[in-house]
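Human: I hope this is not a bother. Would you mind checking the protein record under this note? Thank you for your patience.
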Amino acid sequence: MTMMLGRSAASQGELARAEKLLLDATRTMKGLNDRSQLCEGQRSLAEVYVGMGRLEEAERYALEARESVGPDDRLSLSTTKVSLAVVRAAQRRDDEAEKLFRAAVEELERYQMRAIERWALCKLVGFYRERGREDEAVGYEERLAELSPSRIAPMA
């Protein structure tokens, strides 16, 4: 719950609050030896640190998340790639960032993790747009449109 509150705070731009909550969550997960949640907390914290401009800490947490993730955890193998890509993009290590983003998007599509694929696609499209690489963003935007809620059958 603490991790979800931290993510919510981050999405609302409350980065200091998000940092505190996510640090608490990662300490708890370490104590419980809950690797699946620990890596998710660490990767979320990495993105908060990117938002705060604290790139050394962001890199440390993104790399820790990649180490914490279990070898069979398909979801977190992909989400931690996205978060490390966010860090690499902030560090202007664009080649590495692009490879990580694209690998994660391909994995999420392959495993049909649609909601998380949308999240990753938004990050990749944002990366291309920030770099002025509009042509490369277009194909991924088309995939985003395919995954948009309006293209999914309504629940009865």
User: Anything to note?
Assistant: The domain at 2-151 is CATH 1.25.40.10 (Serine Threonine Protein Phosphatase 5, Tetratricopeptide repeat). The chain has one domain: 2-151.
